[in-house]
Amino acid sequence: MIAHEIANFITVLATAVLIASTIGGLYASGLRLWIAGEVDAEGNAHLLHRIGSVVCFAGCVFIVLFALWLMIPIFH
Prior knowledge:
Blueprint: H1 2-36, H2 47-71
Helix pairs in contact: 1-2
């Protein structure tokens, strides 16, 4: 009985750490790409970096909204 509860705790802990590190990594990558996409001194814009940044931020938003959808029972 107690071994089953410990296994459940470890599963929840591992999932929470994985999701938190994924969101943190996506957000940090999004910030880094956003800065890399600024217009340089010659006036060249780095659109690919900005698009990658938006994709990273959209991934963060998607993960958070999906977690809220899982937690709030009125959405089911």
